[in-house]
């Protein structure tokens, strides 16, 4: 997964280089331990600052069984996917603000560092944290072939 800053529409892209994600799975993002104290800013009057943007699927919608209801100020969300074939991308936009930095409306890779991504699939559950380049790789490569 990668995070792409783009105020007011920040973008998350989920992709797989594995042949293993053929069954239903859930991809969860938890910003709670992010270096910037990140939150989702989905409403005009609430926890975020200046601009806001609600959750919006932008790619891979056919793969999404259930999109999350993200409330303003939330720090976590989960997407239920039917599958995630190798090379396919599921992407969504929403506004992410920091609560610790000087520029709340702009989130850097260093500020998302520490946020956790968890993948639950028929193969099990694995998680990893975003690095300072705003990327995270969750190893789900152990298929039952």
General description of the model:
This protein is mainly beta and 145 residues long. It has 1 helix and 10 strands. The strands form 2 sheets. Strands 1, 2, 4, 5 and 8 form a 5-stranded antiparallel β-sheet that branches. Strands 6-7-3-9-10 form a 5-stranded antiparallel β-sheet, with no helix packed on it. A hairpin with a 2-residue loop joins strand 9 and strand 10. The longest helix is centred in the C-terminal third of the chain and has 4 residues. The two termini are 24 Å apart.
Biggest sheet overview: 5 strands, antiparallel
Amino- and carboxy-terminal Cα gap: 24 Å
The secondary-structure element order is: EEEEEEEEHEE
Overall mean pLDDT stands at 86
Low-confidence stretches: none
Q: What is the general shape?
A: globular
Q: In DSSP terms, counting alpha (H) and pi (I) runs of 4 or more, how many helices?
A: 1
**What's the helical proportion of residues?**
under 10%
Taking Cα atoms only, what radius of gyration do you get, to the nearest Å? 15 Å
Derived from helix and strand composition plus strand pairing, the structural class reads mainly beta
Strand content: 35-45%
Number of DSSP strand runs: 10
Summary of the model, kept short:
The chain is an all-beta fold.
Which structural traits does this protein have?
145 residues; mainly beta; 5-stranded antiparallel β-sheet
Summarize the helices and strands and which ones pair or pack:
Blueprint: E1 2-4, E2 10-15, E3 25-30, E4 39-41, E5 56-59, E6 64-66, E7 76-81, E8 89-97, H1 109-112, E9 116-121, E10 124-129
